[in-house]
Specification:
Layout: H1 24-28, H2 43-54, E1 59-66, E2 69-76, E3 92-93, H3 98-111, H4 121-124, E4 130-131, E5 134-135, H5 141-145, H6 158-165, H7 169-172, H8 179-187, H9 203-217, H10 221-230, E6 255-256, E7 267-268, E8 284-285, H11 287-298, H12 305-311, E9 315-316, E10 324-326, E11 331-334, E12 340-348, E13 351-358, E14 363-369, H13 377-386
Helix pairs in contact: 2-13, 3-9, 3-12, 8-9
Signal peptide: 1-28
Region (Disordered): 238-260
Protein name: Serine hydrolase domain-containing protein
Length: 409
């Protein structure tokens, strides 16, 4: 989902929505003095995680892997009530990171000759994208996957936003939405632009992509992800929950202000029906699984060379982001230190995540903030891949999705 513009967000590398400002008690739980010191090569990353907790994030968990070595960093707590610390195995909702999984399945189907990226949406989903200027005959599957379709983002609908992103969420958290219902919300609005005329992030694109997978295979997108990705890679902590509101164990809690403000009451939003996100952002995973997935993807385990090249063919998102581009469910960002990383960010109520990997798969990082109103994910990424010290040198926001790629409004 997109972000409420009123929030203070410092997460522009891959558009994760994260946030700040809980209580002094939470901040006291974070410093590294309470745990074993991080190795020298990851001290700066640990400092960035600790800074996020001081900024108000209840807890952070992250796993970095480089040349076969694994490091786990954590700060703060997984549960504000019990004080349990976050653990490397903790599962969390990954929001829009789901999009990379969906795009991978679509590209596998193309490699098998079962569809083409140049097929129109109308070809696969007759009469679904229609009304108020939308025309599925003019939109290809490629334009869905790289967000150049112009289709309105259903999560920006005011009535939907009121039910889902404010305190009304507490009464609607278990509501079930079908993919068609979500698309129909978007069709009530005019498109953002003519197909191919610009770039704009829209969760509706990937709800439609999930529907196309089902139409092309006769199986749900969830079952195709499980068969084609989760089982072959042994991603045992990754699930596509559908309408199941429960979090699998082990996991902590997820917290939100349910407001555009970073102050006020903190709500436990752990339980929710993820059908509101559908194939745009409903998945659950953990850091180790996300690292494994992106390494396998970028090193050619999941896609033939031609499809991987298609996926990495990134379009510019704006004139202000020359060092960033969006491919097919996959974003590229060239960091200030020259390192190029690929991945995605994602957020859903109370959970803000990021997973990035170098193009050769040798260095990867996946982490999660269990709050959605503050924090600096850019700082964590830059610390890990560039060695930038947030405490000594303020982190300049990195060109990227400018807080648009997460599934949180």
């Amino acid at each position: 989902m997109s972000v409420r513009t009123g929030r203070r967000v410092r997460t522009t590398v891959f558009g994760v929505v994260v946030a700040a400002g809980i209580t002094a008690t939470v901040c006291a739980a974070g410093p590294a003095s309470a745990r074993e010191a991080a190795p020298a090569s990851h001290q700066v990353t640990q400092q960035a995680m600790d800074a996020a907790v001081r900024d108000g994030v209840p807890g952070v968990i992250g796993v970095a892997q480089q040349d076969g070595r694994t490091w786990t960093g954590d700060s703060g707590v997984a549960d504000l009530r019990t004080g349990r610390e976050r653990q490397a195995e903790d599962r969390y909702r990954v929001g829009s990171i789901t999009k990379t999984f969906v795009a991978t399945v679509v590209l596998q189907l193309e490699a098998e000759g079962r569809l083409s990226l140049d097929d129109t949406v109308e070809h696969w989903l007759p009469d679904v994208v229609r009304g108020n200027g939308h025309d599925g005959k003019k939109i290809t599957l490629r334009r869905l996957l790289n967000h150049t379709s112009g289709i309105y983002n259903y999560t920006q609908d005011p009535a939907f936003g009121q039910r889902i992103f404010g305190t009304e969420f507490l009464q609607h958290r278990y509501d079930t939405y079908t993919p068609r219902q979500l698309v129909d919300i978007a069709m009530e609005h005019a498109p953002n632009f003519e197909p191919g005329a610009s770039w704009r992030y829209s969760n509706t694109n990937f709800v439609l992509a999930g529907m196309v997978v089902e139409k092309a295979t006769g199986h749900s997108y969830a079952s195709e992800i499980e068969r084609r990705i989760l089982r072959p890679l042994h991603l045992r902590s990754t699930t596509v929950p559908g309408t199941d509101s429960r979090m699998p164990r082990p996991s902590g809690r997820a917290y939100s202000k349910l407001s555009t403000e970073s102050t006020g009451r903190t709500y436990d939003v752990t339980a929710l029906n993820p059908s509101m996100a559908s194939s745009a952002g409903e998945m659950v995973s953990n850091s180790a699984d996300l690292n494994r997935f992106y390494r396998a993807l970028l090193t050619g385990e999941l896609l033939p060379p031609r499809q991987l090249k298609e996926m990495k063919t990134a379009v510019p998102m704006s004139a202000d982001t020359p060092d960033a581009g969006y491919g097919l469910g996959l974003q590229m960002n060239k960091l200030p230190c020259g390192t190029e990383v690929w991945g995605h960010g994602g957020g859903i109520h109370g959970s803000s995540s990021m997973a990035v990997t170098t193009g050769d798969g040798r260095h990867s990082l996946a982490f999660n903030f269990n709050g959605d109103w503050s924090g600096d994910a850019d700082a964590v990424v830059l610390a890990e891949f560039c060695g930038t010290t947030p405490a000594a040198k303020p982190v300049k926001p990195v060109a990227g999705l400018v807080a648009s790629a997460a599934f949180v409004k």
